[in-house]
């Protein structure tokens, strides 16, 4: 793999990272509902999930998933139901409360991290993207494991950067809406965003 090929892949990764999808929606939801620390934890979880999904794709699991409608549906609904349940819980749990009470009800960084690991791993559309797109940047005459590792690290770091940008921007917006009479609606909005991310995942098709 030449430097120009790697650069083209890096540019494509930037574009992919900037396009909002269920992962970005989940990160924004965590940021609005629980703040910067939880949002950045969810970014870390998404990065780990992306790395696992991309690795599985490049060793051939993605091809099996792309060929199996049942496997695709199973993974799709695992990720979708997690986001929908968490979003509904956040929405209905929220009531008119003090800022301190809202802070206590915030989703923990650990929950956000583990949740987005699951979203990253179990989002089948992303796995299929990896298995169909990434191999085009691999030189058949070079070391496959080495090139696969370089592309995986490149993609995950770039997307982690764009995801962190979304997390910080949404966290900043949340801080502007931190008055007690507005915070409850911000938290409810975060639940709605998580539900929307789940619905988008459920709507994914091969």
UniProtKB/TrEMBL annotation:
The places in or outside the cell where this protein is found are: Cell membrane
Name the major location.
Answer: membrane
GO MF, one example: amino acid transmembrane transporter activity
> Which superkingdom?
Bacteria
**Pfam families for the chain:** LysE
Q: Which residues cross the membrane?
A: 6-32, 39-68, 74-92, 113-138, 144-169
Q: Which UniProt keywords apply?
A: Cell membrane, Membrane, Transmembrane, Transmembrane helix
- Give membrane topology per the record: Multi-pass membrane protein
Can you name a GO cellular component term?
Answer: plasma membrane
- What this protein is called in its record is LysE family translocator
The species this protein was found in: Methylocystis hirsuta
């Amino acid at each position: 793999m030449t430097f120009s090929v790697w650069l083209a892949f890096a540019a494509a990764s930037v574009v992919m990272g900037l396009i909002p999808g269920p992962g970005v929606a989940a990160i924004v939801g965590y940021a609005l509902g629980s703040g910067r620390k939880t949002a950045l934890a969810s970014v870390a979880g998404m990065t780990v999930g992306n790395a696992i999904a991309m690795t599985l794709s490049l060793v051939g699991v993605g091809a099996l998933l792309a060929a199996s409608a049942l496997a695709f549906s199973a993974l799709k609904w695992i990720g979708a139901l997690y986001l929908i349940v968490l979003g509904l819980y956040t929405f209905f749990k929220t009531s008119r409360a003090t800022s301190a009470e809202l802070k206590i009800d915030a989703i923990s960084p650990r929950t956000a991290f583990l949740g987005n690991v699951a979203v990253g791993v179990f989002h089948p559309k992303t796995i299929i993207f990896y298995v169909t797109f990434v191999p085009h940047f691999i030189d058949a005459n070079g070391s496959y494991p080495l090139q696969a590792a370089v592309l995986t690290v490149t993609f995950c770091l770039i997307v982690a950067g764009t995801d962190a940008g979304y997390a910080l921007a949404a966290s900043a917006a949340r801080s502007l809406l931190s008055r007690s009479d507005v915070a409850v609606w911000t938290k409810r909005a975060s639940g709605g965003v998580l539900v929307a991310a789940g619905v988008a995942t459920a709507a994914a098709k091969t």
